[in-house]
Amino acid sequence: MPTLSPPRAWAEIELDALRHNLGVAREISGCRVMAVVKAGAYGHGLEEIARALAAEDIAFFGVANVGEARRITDAGVTTRIYLLGATWEAERVEVVERGWTPCLSTLDEARHFSDLATAAGTVLKCHLAIDTGMGRGGFVPDELPAALPQLEALPGIEIEGAGSHLPSADEDEAFTRDQFARFSEIVRRLGGRDRFEWIHLSNSAGLLGYDNSPCNLVRPGLMLYGISPLPGDQDRLRNVMSLKSRVTLIRELPAGHGVSYGREFITECPTTVATIGIGYGDGYPRSLSGKGAEVVIRGRRLPLIGRVTMDQIMVDATGAEVSVGDEVELFGPNLRVDELARKAGTIAWEILTGITPRVTRMHR
Description:
Elements: E1 9-13, H1 15-29, E2 32-36, H2 38-43, H3 46-54, E3 60-63, H4 66-74, E4 80-83, H5 89-98, E5 101-104, H6 107-120, E6 124-129, H7 144-153, E7 157-163, H8 173-190, H9 192-195, E8 198-200, H10 204-209, E9 217-218, E10 241-253, E11 258-259, E12 265-266, E13 271-276, E14 294-297, E15 300-305, E16 313-316, E17 327-331, H11 337-344, H12 348-353, E18 360-363
Parallel strand pairs: 1-18, 2-3, 2-9, 3-4, 4-5, 5-6, 6-7, 7-8
Antiparallel strand pairs: 1-10, 10-13, 10-17, 11-12, 13-16, 14-15, 14-17, 15-16
Helix pairs in contact: 5-6
């Protein structure tokens, strides 16, 4: 067997930091937690993150679809799984068989779940999705007084929870405060905690920035992974993922020499160029080209030069102590992912979930 070489690009994932951030979510909200682990636990590794959090007495895992639910269940994790999005007919037999918890947006899907559960000799626990402004799914509030009695009359399902979603908790405080008030009033009119075991609204921004007392369950996602969507709370969280690579080559280029595709960057003087073994094929955004992005080598920030290519990037290492093989931090404790996202013209969520499978995850 040949000796395996180390990875060219890898992500170090600190599970103690993940647990710390979960503790912050609990402390701030005073609620039980549904840990949102969709999109491969925001790029951190679905099964590994689920196993780590399953030992922390969370109420649910929140996933986007049945494929993610299946992976968690097949990994031997027994924590309840909540499907954050709608399902279609072909998926629902497995939902019933596995006992996953769907959210309901229409009477038709509720009837189908009830029929399947009745045929299987079971009762499926479901949550009522209420559309208070997201526009992506759920019952519009005016539909609820007529719909809820019909839902509760279905023999194969049990409506154990009610939830909604915040579309702009990190952008529009006035709308969000009104949304909390409207959701609270809707749930109260439907029977409140006497009728629903679980009541939930807050994502990370809602949890951090607003009064969660109308609810007893919160759904943190981004903050679990160490990034606050509200700047005032960042110091309470610990970084979970660090994206790293290594210097593969160091060269001296003369003045007037182009760097990377398109020759958008031309050296103005003799320049030390360090090549690094990562690119957009690993999830390092091509949109960072020419945007003032930096990397960290030996504790020093060095500027990206030229376009990001599929497998490599180049930085100006002139005057720096840099050697082939040096470790490079693309983001992490010394260069936060949200800073990178701003320069790329996107959001931290997209950067994290865009780290591709060829980047080795190292859970510590």
